Amino acid sequence: MNMIVAVDENWGIGKDGEQLIYISADLKRFKALTMGHSLILGRKTLATFPGGKPLKGRRNLILSRNPDFAPEGAEVYHSMEELLEHVEEDAFVIGGASVYRELLGRCDTVYVTKLQASWPADCWFPNLDEDPAWTVAEEEEVLEEQGVKFHYVTYRRT
Ligand SMILES: NC(=O)c1ccc[n+]([C@@H]2O[C@H](COP(=O)([O-])OP(=O)(O)OC[C@H]3O[C@@H](n4cnc5c(N)ncnc54)[C@H](OP(=O)(O)O)[C@@H]3O)[C@@H](O)[C@H]2O)c1
């Protein structure tokens, strides 16, 4: 399985249920990489999408323990075990913090957008640079948008 995430310099990923920043080039890349693949996400991350609606052109597999949660156009799973029975190996885990934590051990590729700035955050992604289980496979050139420098790094399980 794959993961995709945007992190700041402290590996922060969100605050008060929101993303730290939206970079349009990064959103385009996210769309290009994930299009046609299944997406795995938590209920709180779904709430950050426009109108709280699932992303188009992809299966959206949402985790929630709430039996009454039934967003249109998405599949809801009430446990990770149940979800994993219904997902393909080429799926993308797209957050949030709790789902990243639960599934990192099952992934072999992580697409990280490294933002070269920091913001106050209340949730983080595990620091892959400090984890010997992960190696940088590809590192792209530095880009800039809204005065924020960022670059894409692909990690693979060592
Ligand atoms: N920077 C990035 O790339 C990025 C990407 C995605 C998200 N984010 C950020 O991450 C933050 C959200 O992360 P989060 O950890 O608070 O929320 P989350 O992982 O998006 O969603 C958590 C919810 O998912 C459900 N869930 C999780 N594991 C489950 C399991 N094993 N079985 C059943 N349900 C399960 C529960 O829903 P119920 O409460 O309904 O039971 C839980 O409350 C936001 O700030 C968001 O902006 C950042």
Notable characteristics:
Dihydrofolate Reductase, subunit A, nine-stranded mixed beta sheet, binds NADP nicotinamide-adenine-dinucleotide phosphate, alpha/beta, 158 residues
Explain what the structure shows.
27% of the residues are buried. A hairpin with a 2-residue loop joins strand 2 and strand 3. The protein is of the alpha/beta class and 158 residues long. Helices cover 17% and strands 34% of the residues. The chain has a single domain, classed as Dihydrofolate Reductase, subunit A. The mean pLDDT is 97. The protein is built from four helices and twelve strands, in the order E-E-E-H-E-H-E-E-H-E-H-E-E-E-E-E. It is globular and about 40 Å long. The strands form two sheets. Strands 1, 4, 5, 6, 7, 8, 10, 11 and 12 form a nine-stranded mixed sheet that branches. The structure holds NADP nicotinamide-adenine-dinucleotide phosphate. NADP nicotinamide-adenine-dinucleotide phosphate (NAP) is lined by residues 5-6, 13-14, 17-19, 42-45, 48, 63-66, 69, 78-80, 94-99, 102, 123.
Provide a brief overview of the structure.
By secondary structure, the protein is α/β, with parallel strands linked by helices. It has helices at 24-34, 43-46, 80-84, 97-103; strands spanning 2-7, 12-15, 18-19, 39-42, 60-63, 75-77, 92-93, 109-115, 123-124, 134-139, 143-145, 148-157.
